[in-house]
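In the design runs reported in the main text, the only information available to the sequence generator was the tokenized backbone. The following block is the verbatim input for one such run; it is reproduced so that readers can re-run the procedure and compare outputs position by position.
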């Protein structure tokens, strides 16, 4: 006589798990069949219709581009450096990244695959001074991975302005222009430009002679970007001490403190080559212009 097979509890659990795995695999396979390119195309066309947008040209890749302000000169070429202002948003209007209100530009070498494909393609249609809007399907943006606040498989809108196109970037000249613009925008006065490009404004005179190379200075300070982001500061009870002129600090400090004396307060505006140059330091991007508000508490 044959008895019916009755699986053990462990075997039953394995069968259940196998069944769940089959269901999940089936679901993944169904999800993989989504044609995101077609979906993005329909989404972009609906977005254009809903917002009554005109002037867009569809590229064969699926990128949509509208030039809202013509530029001048030749179009950007591969390996040239492009400096740009931009605002990136989702199609619901949420801004996910922007430098339009910043003193910083976005610099990238065109065609070096350092940017998403939609950017690499879009900027080949632009020249210096041009403004444009890109509608970038997810396959030309961050695809199924997403990035930060950008969900996977998301169509993006970029409003861009080409500030400059060049074979290389003259950061010294650009820093000089940016510092002068910053001083004018903030209505700052009392700055003296040094031959190095350092700008110094003494806001409270000190006493005694100027600090000499080799002397040890103690100071309270707050370091900010030109956009007002504080990246470093001291506590009132803990001044920072260093030997002036010996390379213990960035070059702008070594120079700037030789113009100060005990008790003085000052603002130092450092071009990037007198700060951290092309190095990115913690939250500071490469080629950052820095502002330091300093007070010399002691000199020995």
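Verbatim output:
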């Amino acid at each position: 006589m044959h008895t019916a097979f009755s699986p053990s509890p462990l075997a039953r659990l394995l069968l259940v798990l196998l069944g769940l795995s089959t269901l999940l695999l089936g679901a993944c396979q169904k999800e993989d069949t989504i044609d995101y390119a077609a979906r993005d195309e329909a989404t972009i066309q609906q977005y254009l219709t809903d917002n009554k947008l005109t002037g867009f040209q569809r590229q064969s890749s699926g990128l949509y581009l509208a030039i809202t302000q013509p530029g001048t000169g030749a179009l950007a070429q591969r390996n040239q450096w492009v400096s740009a202002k931009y605002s990136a948003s989702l199609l619901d209007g949420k801004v996910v990244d922007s430098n339009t209100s910043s003193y910083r530009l976005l610099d990238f070498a065109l065609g070096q695959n350092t940017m998403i494909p939609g950017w690499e393609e879009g900027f080949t249609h632009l020249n210096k001074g041009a403004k444009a809007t890109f509608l970038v399907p997810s396959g030309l943006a961050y695809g199924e991975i997403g990035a930060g606040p950008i969900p996977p498989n998301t169509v993006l809108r970029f409003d861009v302005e080409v500030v400059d196109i060049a074979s290389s970037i003259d950061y010294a000249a650009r820093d000089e222009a940016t510092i002068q613009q910053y001083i004018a925008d903030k209505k700052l006065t009392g700055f003296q430009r040094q031959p190095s490009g350092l700008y110094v404004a003494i806001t409270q005179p000190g006493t005694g002679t100027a600090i000499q190379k080799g002397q040890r200075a103690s100071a309270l300070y707050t370091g900010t970007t030109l956009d007002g982001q504080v990246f470093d500061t001291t506590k009132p009870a803990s001044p920072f001490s260093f030997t002036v002129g010996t390379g213990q600090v960035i070059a702008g400090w070594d120079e700037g403190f030789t113009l100060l004396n005990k008790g003085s307060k000052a603002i130092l505006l450092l071009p990037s080559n007198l700060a951290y140059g092309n190095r990115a330091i913690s939250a500071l991007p490469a080629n950052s212009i820095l502002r330091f508000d300093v007070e010399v508490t002691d000199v020995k």
